[in-house]
Design a protein that fits this description.
alpha/beta, 5 strands, about 180 residues, 6 helices, 3-stranded parallel sheet
Length: about 180
């Protein structure tokens, strides 16, 4: 079988572009006579931004509580300095919350290894408390928004995340979860 002089990656890109062009032609031919052109509805056109305000938020960040590079309080300070007012710390297999009790939490084994190898920005692995109200921030407790789903949350540990960040493993899971 003879190989094509055009690399496979180039052929794939060409196919994607041709499919996109065909889709554009198909939708433009299909437009109804009542509505010509494109109509984009702004979902925010009724929002009173002067009254409601705009907020920078991060709903997914990791710290040394799992595989992140910053201590929890350093991550909080970092996002506050960038102008964020809403932050959820979503460490793997751990609940890095409440901010007022960070000093009671332990860094992950991976963070201790990275610290020993000099790969963390911090000079120590001591966690410091932060008060979201004093910082003018909202601390999102990750399980509180996971509970919005009306079914048990399946966590990366292969089971269900329980109160306090514990993982309830399914009976058929005899081995520990794979490393990420």
């Amino acid at each position: 079988m003879k190989s094509s002089p055009i690399p496979a990656s180039t052929r794939r890109v060409a196919v994607v572009l041709l499919c996109g062009l065909a889709g554009c032609l198909f939708t433009s031919c299909k437009s109804s006579p009542q509505r010509q052109g494109v109509f984009i509805r702004n979902p925010y056109d009724q929002v009173d931004w002067a009254r409601d305000g705009r907020f920078l938020a991060n709903f997914h960040t990791h710290t040394t509580g799992s595989d992140g590079g910053l201590l929890p309080h350093d991550a909080i300070d970092h996002y506050r300095n960038l102008g964020y007012s809403i932050l959820a710390i979503t460490d793997h297999n751990a609940v890095t919350y409440p901010w007022e009790k960070l000093d009671t939490l332990e860094p992950s084994a991976g963070a201790r290894d990275r610290f020993a190898a000099g790969k963390l920005e911090s000079a120590a692995l001591d966690y410091e408390n932060r008060d979201p109200a004093e910082l003018g921030m909202i601390a999102i407790h990750p399980p509180s928004y996971w509970q919005l789903f009306q079914r048990p949350f399946r966590h990366s540990c292969g089971g269900r995340l329980l109160e306090g960040g514990k993982c309830q493993r399914r009976d058929r899971d005899a081995q520990p979860p794979r490393p990420l």
